[in-house]
Amino acid sequence: MKDHEKYLFDLNGYLVVRNALTPDEVVQLNEAVDRRSVSEKLESTPYFHTGFPDVMLGNSDPGNGPVDLADGSLLDWGPEFRRLIDLPRILPYLEELLKPEVRFDHAYGVFSRAGAASGVGMHLHHGGAPHDPSQSYSYRDGEIYNGLLAVSYALTPAAAGGGGFCLVPGSHKSNFPLPQEVREAGSSWPVQHVPLEAGDAVIFSEATTHGTLPWSGTTERRVLLYKYCPSFMQWERSSPGAAVDARFTPEQRSLMISPFASAGRRSAKG
Ligand SMILES: O=C(O)CCC(=O)C(=O)O
């Protein structure tokens, strides 16, 4: 992680990594998403989250935001999805931002129908206050520390003004709870939309107030979220959400083992 990237992450609570996925990886992931009949499902449910451990299933009311659809774990959808656990382009960022070591926690997908079909987005959530150690941000003795950290991969472009991921820059360090005026700000300051090309990734602290603006893009919105913890912590009850077996490389398995505090002992090879 370069010094200017550390500066920006510390300042804003997020960082955009352009071309985190190669064009080939974007094509393969989109084909794999097609095989899960996502476009067909979007005909009846214009905005949904899926691929997470079933225990995360919550919302069934489209008026409240994304509907949660059960379709098994994203990690069981194919090798294309398992490969993202330790993507070489992203892993160095995780190693810098999660101490003492990186632990993969869970993953899921976010999908919206093309056009102005989804009238709602996902409300702004989280922030520096009230303090929640499981999704917190701090800086001490020259090092950055995070609780839950997210990597969001765009499989389709998100043009400026077309909706999608948004956040309040700097809110990972806010000392006051999210005011109602900001919650209702839509895409106005201080809420910032994050335009992306397919293949870009957004790395963000879960302590940064974030949400989703209603989608009016001309393509489907396809986003994959991979979430990580410091190695002593588990965030999601059924983490990592899939059997940790020979489908995963030893390096991936070492990121997926149960949380514990002592550092330097997370190799799944031995
Ligand atoms: O739609 C997005 O990119 C963000 C989704 C989100 O904030 C969440 O799943 O908690």
Automatic annotation (TrEMBL):
Q: Tell me the Gene3D superfamilies matching this sequence.
A: q2cbj1_9rhob like domain (2.60.120.620)
SUPFAM superfamilies named among the record's database cross-references:
Clavaminate synthase-like
Q: Which residues cross the membrane?
A: none
What InterPro entries does this protein map onto? Phytyl_CoA_dOase-like
Any single Pfam family the record assigns to this protein:
PhyH
Q: What are the entry keywords? A: Iron, Metal-binding
Tell me where on the tree of life, at the top rank, the source sits.
Bacteria
Q: What is this protein called?
A: Phytanoyl-CoA dioxygenase family protein
